[in-house]
Specification:
alpha+beta, Butyryl-Coa Dehydrogenase, subunit A, domain 1, two-stranded antiparallel ribbon, 379 residues, 8-stranded mixed sheet, Butyryl-CoA Dehydrogenase, subunit A, domain 2, Butyryl-CoA Dehydrogenase, subunit A, domain 3
Length: 379
């Protein structure tokens, strides 16, 4: 059992860290303030193949695997939760095509997605029904060699960017949810203004409105009525990105707390000399290390996934622990800052707002615990 990173993994980690510190960090406050990612940042991410790290080269990816993906996402999430959230949702959509798509679908949608020319979305959640596949209300009616889709999707990442959206609707043939690849911006597709969420600014969430959207039958993903398997596995892969993003925020909170403790003076000595502060620093270090290895392990498991049910359990387990722990570490860092941590002049306040998002997305914490318990009891 070797816990050392390979040369290739270290290169991916260093590349992402260098780009994040040189280009994203200087505009991180601007992104938080304006809720918008500058175009030159997106272009830089594309040039470094950060839109397609885990996917095969034959489909435009970097072939870095999910183990490389978690290393890069941690570094991006360390400086901007919103950019990491955008990449995470994008990779979630691409993973569904990668696993369930035909060769034609992969060539048409994965190549521009992996190259960053398109940014992909994954649309399941609906107003009133949330993320319950049994209650899905969006419909897909077969009409010759097309499907006509009507409905509304809520809190959809990347819905404003050009590219594909993996969309779930109850099809008229089976009465079950099916997955479709839809081109954003097609006739009948429209979006709301971005939701004004409390953190991870730049990673926009929007509602998607579908009015008689005409989708070719060839854009059906994996066949009629196959929506649930796509959802289960796709969201499991999505949690790899969510965990990595939370881990990056946790690292940022830890670093900010440690830095402040060394610099803030009280009674002519840094507050890091006080035992109460040392205990908080120790707790942050312990929690970060535990979350780091759980996240890295999840990347390894995603690369070597053989049993979708077992992977779903591991992803839910990691997501619950890592996202909850990120909030705990951010709170410890806030405590070290004292009242200054409440001020927007201090980076830790933004980090805290970002980390709070993690437990609520890709399935709330209690939902993840139910998945872990259900699959554990079924073993």
């Amino acid at each position: 059992m070797d816990f050392n990173l390979s040369k290739e993994q270290l290169l991916i980690q260093r590349m992402a860290r260098d780009f994040a510190e040189k280009y994203i960090e200087p505009v991180a406050e601007q992104i938080d303030r304006e809720n918008k990612i500058p175009e030159d940042i997106l272009e830089g991410l594309a040039e470094l193949d950060l839109f397609g790290i885990p996917f095969p080269e034959e489909y435009g990816g970097a072939d870095g695997g999910y183990d490389g993906y978690v290393l890069a996402m941690e570094q991006i999430g360390r400086v901007s939760g919103g950019i990491a959230m955008t990449l995470s949702a994008h990779s979630l959509g691409l993973s569904a095509i990668s696993v369930f798509g035909t060769e034609e679908q992969k060539q048409k949608y994965m190549v521009p997605g992996c190259k960053g020319k398109h940014i992909v979305s994954f649309a399941f959640t609906e107003p009133g029904t949330g993320s319950d596949p049994k209650q899905i209300t969006t419909t897909a009616v077969k009409d010759g060699d097309h499907y006509i889709i009507n409905g509304t999707k809520r809190f959809i990442s990347n819905a404003n960017w050009p590219g594909a959206i993996i969309l779930f609707a109850r099809d008229s043939e089976t009465g079950k949810p099916s997955g479709f690849i839809v081109d954003k911006g097609c006739e009948g597709y429209s979006i709301s203004e971005p939701w004004d969420k409390m953190g991870m600014h730049g990673g926009m969430l929007l509602d998607v409105y579908l009015k008689d959207v005409k989708v070719p039958a060839e854009n059906l993903l994996a066949g009629p009525g196959m929506g649930y398997p796509i959802l289960q596995l796709g969201i499991s892969f999505g949690k790899v990105g969510v965990c990595s993003t939370a881990l990056g925020g946790m690292l940022a909170a830890y670093e900010e707390g440690l830095k402040y403790a060394k610099e803030k003076m009280h009674r002519d000595k840094p507050i890091s000399r006080f035992q109460s502060i040392q205990l908080k620093i120790a707790d942050m270090a312990i929690k970060y290390e535990a979350a780091r290895w759980l996240t890295y392990r999840l990347g390894y498991l995603a690369n070597n996934m053989k049993d979708p049910r077992q992977f779903a359990k591991e992803a839910a387990l990691a997501k619950t622990f890592v996202c909850d722990t990120a909030v705990e570490v951010a709170r410890l860092s806030m405590d070290i800052h004292g009242s200054y941590g409440l001020m927007n002049d201090y980076k830790v306040s933004r980090i805290y707002r970002d980390t709070i998002i993690g437990p609520q997305i890709e399935g709330v914490a209690d939902m993840q615990r139910m998945i872990v318990a259900g699959l554990t009891l079924a073993d």
